[in-house]
Design a protein that fits this description.
6-stranded mixed β-sheet; alpha+beta; globular; about 25% strand; 6 helices; Deoxyribonuclease I, Chain A
Length: about 260
């Protein structure tokens, strides 16, 4: 089974490169974040034409939103209202005769890494706290994918020292994510295939004139599995080339092949 996760940064604005991704990499399941469309307005017909007619969508108008689309049907789908905010940041599907796949879009957190003066950062920290408590209690074998908006290790960013006061790599965020991983024993699939201290990124800012040459990246996208699923991933690849496609997202897709 091939699963690809991708923060698409507005699905309706980037249908051409979604088609390119599906045609070139042939995922069984595609998990999208930041779809920026209400559930009722999601382009279902487009995905049906691509051969991915099974959809679990949690969207809202103009902001956030997640969707999981697949070739084969799911047994069930549901979402959790994290932080009781009513925003669309999670969708889960129970794979047929398999684990539960959780698709997340964690809040970015704004620009100022101080929860006392930045409500967006406070929201992000609360979200991480709730995910940590959930991880601790989680019993069923699960896969977590998505834009978690934290680069937890020094080698997940282009310059550790320069980014220590930049949201996504501050110590309170990275410590929080590492505690979340420990709470369930999550296996960081991307780092299983690209071990530390090798640099590994999935996001490059739009601000760089030549993003690839500058290579000032961060690993904000993640794939984790429960300890019982540690042996199921057999291949991982950050599809860096997609960051250079026409009208790209600032995130690259992350591909993982599983053998269940």
């Amino acid at each position: 089974m091939r699963i690809i996760t991708w923060n698409i940064n507005s699905v309706r604005a980037r249908l051409d490169i979604v088609r390119q991704l599906v045609e070139e990499y042939n995922p069984d399941i595609l998990c999208l974040q930041e779809i920026k469309v209400h559930t009722d307005m999601f382009p279902r017909g487009f995905f049906e034409e691509l051969g991915m007619p099974h959809l679990a969508i949690h969207g809202q108008k103009g902001h956030h939103g997640v969707a999981t689309v697949a070739k084969a049907p799911f047994e069930d789908s549901f979402h959790i209202d994290w932080c009781a905010m009513g925003d669309a940041r999670h969708i889960a599907v129970k794979l047929k005769d398999g684990p539960t796949l959780h698709n997340f879009y964690v809040p970015a957190g704004g620009d100022e890494p101080d929860p006392l003066i930045n409500d967006k950062f406070a929201h992000k920290l609360k979200f991480v706290e709730e995910m940590t408590a959930w991880s601790k209690e989680l019993k069923e074998p699960s896969i977590v994918v998505g834009d978690l908006n934290i680069a937890p290790h020094p080698d997940d960013v282009w310059d550790h020292k320069k980014l220590l006061k930049v949201v996504s790599h501050t110590p309170i965020e990275t410590d929080g994510m590492l505690a979340m991983i420990e709470a369930h024993g999550w296996v960081d699939v991307m780092r299983e295939f690209t071990p530390l201290p090798e640099k590994l990124y999935s996001w490059w800012s739009y601000r760089a004139r030549d993003w690839s040459a500058a290579d000032k990246g961060r690993r904000l996208d993640h794939v984790w599995v429960s300890p019982s699923l540690k042996e199921t991933p057999v291949h991982m690849e950050v599809l860096r080339g997609a960051r250079g496609w026409e009208k790209p997202s600032d995130h690259a897709p992350v591909l993982v092949d599983f053998k269940f």
